[in-house]
Write a structure and sequence with these properties.
This protein is of the alpha+beta class.
């Protein structure tokens, strides 16, 4: 499910901000956008997020700056600068025509700038900030989940209406098809009174009876309602039920002997596909 939340705090003269955003994904994917000073605590941030989120493609962004009115003091690493200069003189002694490095390149040299903020242990403030963000983030996803749940329940109600319309007609439809077979045998053989023919017709009537499929469809739909009413993480369980619903709808279509049941099977498959697409987004 999609979601977004952000928060910030001041810590030791620093301004720390963190935001979480997610888009739909069947699995949980967490990506970080943060400076090197946060790389060591990424595993802890990832673990904390996974405790609250099970699905979605998440981006966690952590930014560090100076608090308002506070200046971030950045100093040159003079010891490193001296070593770099000494090495430069050695290289120049062997290669007089070698190009000198610029001031900008010196400042970008790893470890050349000594930032006091980099020495701060930001683990606890980051985790504290993440906890604050997760509360709103989960709440935003729950609000979207409620909308998706209403959408699924609406589709389930339509499926139940289709089943309720065709179920009472099944005995009549099966008898009509059975009578049609009897007539065809009579036209082909001149008589349909042969016992074996009657047995074959009765056996075929059992094969085309879809009462069991409709019953299982109704049972699966009741389970969908139960899961949605119970709340909590439901995506994976509903995903499994969508597979079962689709299997029963396929069987209903393959065993259909009337335009009416064929149409119902098609309508059910359309609704199941609509539900399946939304289930992929549920937590």
């Amino acid at each position: 499910m999609t979601g977004y939340a952000a928060a910030s705090m001041h810590y030791a003269g620093l301004h720390l901000s963190l935001d979480l955003r997610s888009v739909n994904s069947r699995y949980l994917e967490i990506h970080f956008r943060c400076g090197d000073e946060f790389r060591a605590i990424e595993p802890q941030l990832r673990e904390r997020i996974a405790q609250h989120v099970q699905r979605g493609k998440l981006e966690c962004r952590v930014l560090l700056g100076s608090s308002v009115g506070a200046e971030r003091e950045i100093r040159l690493n003079l010891a490193l600068l001296e070593r770099l200069n000494a090495l430069g003189e050695v290289v120049t002694g062997y290669m007089p025509d070698a190009q000198q490095i610029s001031v900008a390149e010196v400042l970008r040299w790893p470890g050349m700038l000594d930032d006091p903020a980099a020495s701060q242990d930001l683990t606890q403030p980051c985790l504290q900030l993440l906890d604050t963000v997760l509360v709103e983030f989960v709440a935003s996803r729950q609000r979207e989940g409620a909308k998706l749940s209403a959408h699924l329940l609406e589709r389930a109600a339509q499926m139940e209406a289709h089943i309720g319309r065709v179920a009472p007609r099944l005995p009549e439809l099966v008898r009509a098809y059975q009578d049609k077979l009897v007539q065809r045998f009579a036209d082909a053989l001149g008589s349909a009174d042969d016992e074996r023919i009657r047995q074959e017709i009765a056996l075929f009537a059992q094969k085309i009876d879809v009462d069991e499929e409709l019953s299982r469809l109704g049972m699966h739909l009741r389970e969908v309602r139960r899961i949605l009413d119970a709340g909590g993480a439901a995506g994976k369980r509903l995903d499994f039920l969508m597979q079962e619903l689709n299997r029963e709808a396929n069987t209903l279509g393959s065993k259909s002997v009337s335009v009416e049941t064929t149409q119902v099977a098609m309508d059910l498959k359309v609704l199941i596909e609509q539900m399946r697409e939304q289930v992929q987004n549920l937590e």
